[in-house]
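Q: I'm writing a short explainer about Leucine rich repeat for a general audience and would like to include a description of its predicted shape. Could you first generate the structure from this sequence?
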Amino acid sequence: MGATGVTTSNVCTTQGVSCINGLVDTINLEAYASGSRSLPDHTKSPFTTYSYGEMTIANIQCIGCKTLSGILPAAWGSMTSLLTIQFYECALTGSLPSEWSGLTRLSSLLLQSNQLTGTLPTSWQSMTQLITLRIHSNQLTGPLPEGWSKLTVLGTLSLNSNQLSGTLPSSWRLMTGMAFLYLFANKLEGTLPSEWSSMTILNELSLNDNQLSGTLPSSWKSMTNMVFLYLFANKFEGTLPSEWSSMTRIADLRLNDNKLTGTLPSTWSSFTSLGTTYLRNNALSGTLPDSWKSMKKLGLLSLEGNQFTGEIPSSWNSMVALGSFTAQGNQLTGGLPSSFSSMTALTSVDLSSNQLDQALPSALPPNIQSVYLHNNRITGYIPQSYTTANYPSVTTIFLHGNPDLKGCVPPSWKDSNNALYSSYTLLRSTNPAVACDGCATYGTLGCASCVAGSKVNQTTLQCVEKGCTVTSCTKCVFDKEDQCETCGETYKVDSSKKCTPKVCSVPNCATCVYNTEDQCGTCDATYKVDSSKKCTPKVCSVPNCATCVYNTEDQCGTCDATYKVDSSKKCTPKVCSVPNCATCVYNTEDQCETCGTNQKPDGKGGCTPMQCSVEGCNKCVDDTEDKCETCGTNMKSDGKGGCTPMDCSVAHCAKCVVNTEDQCKTCGKTYKLDDKQQCIPKVCSVLNCATCVYDMEDQCDVCSTNQKSDGNGGCTPMVCSVANCTKCVVDTEDQCASCGTNMKPDGDGGCTPMQCSVEGCSKCVDDTEDECAECGGNFVSKNGGCEATKGGGGLPLGAIIGIAIGAVTLLILLLLLLLFFCCRKRKTTYEQVDHLTGNKTETQRRKSTGKVDVSEETEVTVMDAFHPGDTRRSVNPLNSPPQNDIPQTVVARRRSRRTRSIRNTGSDIADVDLEFMFDDENEIVEV
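A: Of course. Here's the predicted structure. Afterward I'll give you a sentence or two in plain language.
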């Protein structure tokens, strides 16, 4: 490869390099093909420094360089001067460089017969000047690029013998310059594009050996320049398009090994240039068209493996160029037309495995080499003219498997050195008569005379052994048909050489031994054959037999009394066969006289079981039906052979033990079984339980005082939860009955500390608020109270007077403030709600103290005029009626604005003092 400006003479004179005007034009590497060579790696130095776009090289080639390996350089794609690249029949590997799309002037690219892999580059669609592209016989894969439809001047494209897949692009219809397209031996599928009809200059199209399917497009009739069309070994279906008759230039048409159906189009008679036609191994049917006689150039016609019927047109003898005609494996009838004897070009005919049923033609084509007519139904005679002397080129005439052939095979066939000897051996294996081994002289159709002992069959003209005409004779005297030498069985030769029957002469003999006259084989009735083959009387030899079977000695017909004839015709003792019978009637086996235990006669000679008729009885006394031995469940004997029901006598028992009257199984409610199967009352066993759940001993219903349910059917003590309480109210845990030291009830069931109210007292007596135990400074104890001290130990008199005046002033201010609040109007409403009836009663009381009856659930509501909606309630829910007829009342004293809840404590009474002060308008102004 030279760059622009390289003009040194030593480059242009290098072997394999051609120059024009001092510049490299062609590089031919064939001179360096010996030994292992490899294309250099153009991705390495110094090749990476080349300016490929400035090179003038037009041609690079190495044809048949079988040892040249390496990959195609992608860098060559910049050599826009290239016109041809030829590297076929080499050992190149790798893929087709997509970079070669820059070779827009390339007209010929030949890369066939290498080891190239990968797919066809879509980018090559830019090689619009490409005329010839051959990449067949590689290992290419992938689809046919749709974009290659732009290669409109491409005339030859060979991609066959690769592993290409996918469908035939309909866009390739634009490749109108295509003349030669080879895509066979790939993995292409799909249908034939009808659009390809625009490829009107297409001359050769090879799509065979793929997986194409569908029908043959009638639109391809426009391909009038088609000469070679190969579509065989695919999966095409449908009929042969009659429209293709316009392809008048077709010379080679191969549609074999598909699934085509229908008939042969008579219009194809226009194929006057057709030289080769393969239609074998389809499902074509119908008759062979007479019109095809116009195919004067047809040299090979292959129709085998179809379903053609009818006769072979005799007019086809006008196919003067026909050299090979094969139609085996069809359903053709008739025969090989005699007119074919004029076809001088015909060398091979195969019509085997049809239904040909006519005679063989008297003459064959003069230059015939092989004729296959075996496995048909050919009749008539084998022409004696079928010899190598008359047909010097013939090597095969297969006629075997035609059972109705007559005449004789030409004698020359029997010569092991003759070309037709193998045809003779096959024919003799299926039609041995045509060998005519006993023929002495031959005629035009078969044997004229036979050797001694044989004669000519005038129908088949074959030699057959002379037949014996003597009745019952198996072999006549040699070459005599009316004199017997050996008679058939049961016959003997008499003095006239005829056969007469043999006659049995043994007395009382029905039949003599086969083919004898003095040895009895079967005697008359009541006689038997003795050791000398004579007949003697038979004597009955069976023990205890009264009479033997007629004409037997060892088979008894009637036995003596108390005996019977068994299956072997012997006498055996009779045995009583009646079930449950103790003794049968004399000389019988099926008539009982005395039945067994608990059985009775059934009136028909048999025995039937006795049925116990006692009601409630499980088993009667043996041999009785009305006396019970064992009574049934819960039944007892009545002492008279009967049964009476048992009565359960256990008190409070719901059901006694089976078959007992004093053993209880299930007691009634609130009772249980003891260890003696008696019923005793159930006792509540739950500790601290007042009452158990009904009919239970371990599930408490009501616990005792100060006990509560534990949730599992038991009782657990109540625990007082009130702080500083020493004892709660009976049956409560949150209502204190007795508070601890220095504590007092708080009015809500709780305890609150006591407050010492004695003036000047620093500590009250325990559990009191108004008895001082210890006075403070300047105070002394007096009558449970504290009194201020006088004298030097106290305050000065002036101070005391000042304090007194201040106290009086403060008291006056407090009285004025109290008067102010007392003059403001306040309204309190007392509302009592009966939750049993839903009625509400609103009352007002004037300066009164009362007790609210809460024998029914009661709500007390006080609404403060200063705080609308402010509700205080005292609620007493009742769960049980009053006890000991003590009124259930509560009394609550309103000490603050907080709601107070007073729990009813059963028989105790809680007092609530409600004091109301009304104004002149009868409205509450103070509580």
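A: For your explainer, you could say: The radius of gyration is 69 Å.
Q: Perfect, that's easy to follow.
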